[in-house]
């Protein structure tokens, strides 16, 4: 099935893709452990020894600037008996396990273990925390647990150039603010909701009149990778949230759980999702500015977004997740309008195709 022009009505996915523990486990291994995941912005770890931790399902990860100030990612696990090495974020000259004080340098090599000299043949140089692939994509740090996966530019061809076209100075932006919430739904329920605007005129009146021009809004697969591009002219409403001169709206969803979003006027923000269970996911909403500060305009945008679109979506996806567990749910056809536009679910058809391709290959 080609999501651009399906030959017949496309049925929505069966509920098991959103509710079944076994399917969820397959998605963990076949999707999330084989794709690029947004971790944090490089400006959150600017100095040697700065680190940032995160979890992807049951895999703990830390990102650190090593002694040469290079960004590196590692599994956050001591090679002695498995204790987590780091918590939260901060700065370390060396990394010492809080369980038995096995100590590693910033490149992951073991440099000390209490009483290890009494062990015949113990060679610290043979022991190193396993590294994880990392890429800095326009200042946004992504990790990938699959060593064989293609690079980000190969996975998402053309996205870098498109983003730079909308925001040429994006690489100089700095982290300014983040808020997050448990959405109380499957990760795909949340991602679907983000990637269609069929509901926007009904559920997001403020967004439809304060940011975008609904008549020009579109979400379509982009390029040769698994990318959805959201595009729109800036709103022409007198109720615009701020001065939107300078650019139009563009958002780039990068399969499976990250999005870099560019509001008109150069406001840069991100979404990323981290599944917690089959029926819960944590969404992170990040904002970036030229100096890393939240000025009056950005604060207004953050507040309006959180009070309207963000909170409205939380209620929507929780209701959908409950409905997906109903014995009376029968997935109907998607509204895939070949002409695109705000009332088309072309993007949802693409998401479903990518998911099926990913887990079927297993």
Structural key phrases:
7-stranded antiparallel β-sheet; globular; Naphthalene 1,2-dioxygenase Alpha Subunit, Chain A, domain 1; 2 domains; alpha+beta; 24% helix; 27% strand; 9 helices; 17 strands; 362 residues; Rieske Iron-sulfur Protein
Describe, in short, the structure shown.
This protein is α+β, with helices and mostly antiparallel strands.
Structure description:
Helix 5 crosses helix 8. The protein has helices at about 15-20, 20-30, 150-155, 160-165, 185-195, 200-205, 205-210, 295-325, 345-360, and strands at about 35-40, 50-55, 60-65, 70-75, 90, 95, 105, 110, 130-135, 140-145, 175-180, 220, 225-230, 250-255, 260-265, 265-275, 280-290. The protein contains nine helices and 17 strands. It starts with 15 loop residues before the first helix and ends with a helix. The protein has two domains: about 15-35 and about 165-360, Naphthalene 1,2-dioxygenase Alpha Subunit, Chain A, domain 1; about 50-135, Rieske Iron-sulfur Protein, CATH 2.102.10.10.
What is the global morphology?
globular
**CATH homologous superfamily label of the largest domain:** Naphthalene 1,2-dioxygenase Alpha Subunit, Chain A, domain 1
Straight-line distance between termini: 19 Å
Domain count, please report it.
Answer: 2
Strand order of the largest sheet: 1-10-9-4-3-2-5
Q: What's the total count of β strands? A: 17
What is the makeup of the main sheet? 7 strands, antiparallel
| Poorly predicted runs of 5 or more residues | none
CATH architecture of the largest domain: Alpha-Beta Complex
Order of helices and strands: HHEEEEEEEEEEHHEHHHEEEEEEHH
Secondary structure tally, helices: 9
Main CATH class of the largest domain:
Alpha Beta
Beta-strand fraction estimate = 25-35%
How much helical structure, as a percent, in the residues?
A: 10-25%
């Amino acid at each position: 099935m080609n999501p651009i022009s399906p030959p017949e009505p496309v049925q929505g996915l069966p509920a098991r893709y959103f509710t079944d523990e076994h399917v969820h486990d397959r998605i963990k291994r076949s999707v999330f452990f084989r794709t690029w995941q947004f971790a944090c912005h490089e400006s959150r770890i600017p100095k040697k020894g700065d680190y940032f931790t995160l979890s992807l399902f049951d895999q703990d990860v830390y990102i650190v600037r090593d002694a040469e100030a290079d960004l590196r990612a590692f599994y956050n696990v001591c090679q002695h008996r498995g204790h987590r090495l780091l918590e939260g974020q901060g700065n370390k000259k060396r990394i010492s396990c809080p369980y038995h004080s096995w100590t590693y340098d910033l490149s992951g090599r073991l440099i000390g273990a209490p009483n290890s000299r009494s062990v015949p043949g113990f060679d610290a140089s043979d022991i190193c925390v396993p590294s994880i692939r990392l890429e800095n994509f326009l200042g946004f740090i992504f990790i990938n647990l699959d060593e064989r996966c293609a690079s980000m530019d190969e996975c998402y061809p053309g996205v870098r150039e498109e983003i730079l076209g909308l925001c040429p100075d994006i690489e100089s932006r700095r982290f300014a603010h983040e808020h997050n919430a448990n959405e109380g739904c499957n990760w795909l329920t949340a991602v679907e909701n983000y990637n269609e605007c069929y509901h926007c005129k009904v559920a997001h009146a403020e967004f439809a009149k304060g940011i975008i021009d609904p008549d020009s809004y579109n979400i379509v697969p982009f390029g040769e990778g698994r990318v959805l591009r959201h595009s729109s002219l800036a709103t022409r409403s007198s109720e615009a949230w701020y001065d939107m001169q300078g650019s139009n709206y563009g958002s780039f969803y990068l399969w499976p759980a990250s999005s870099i979003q560019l509001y008109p006027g150069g406001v840069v923000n991100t979404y990323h999702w981290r599944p917690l269970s089959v029926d819960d996911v944590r969404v992170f909403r990040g904002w970036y500015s030229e100096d890393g500060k939240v000025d009056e305009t950005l604060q207004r945008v953050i507040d309006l977004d959180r009070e309207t679109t963000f909170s409205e979506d939380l209620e929507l996806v929780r209701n959908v997740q409950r409905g997906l567990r109903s014995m009376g749910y029968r997935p109907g056809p998607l509204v895939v309008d070949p002409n695109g536009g705000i009332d088309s679910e072309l993007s949802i058809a693409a998401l479903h195709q990518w998911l099926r391709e990913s887990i079927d290959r297993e």
